[in-house]
User: Fold this.
Amino acid sequence: MKAVRVVVSGRVQGVGFRAWTVREAKALGLAGRVWNRPDGDVEAEAVGAGPALERFVEAMRQGPRLARVEQVAEQWFESPDVPRDFRVAG
Assistant:
């Protein structure tokens, strides 16, 4: 199944970014996980339909209201595993 890994840099921790990401992903029908990285970035992996994944990446470029997204790196891949839901990891 199609998947994307997204790393978001900027003011993205302590602003509700992970909870917002879960809501966005679930609204798009995606499965996967999101977590804070030790370097201050937020990383997410999402699995689902191509158009929904593209909308997910675009949403991540904006982030929630209190975030300040400075950079988004994306890596597309095929995932042999399909998680059951989208959740905060760790």
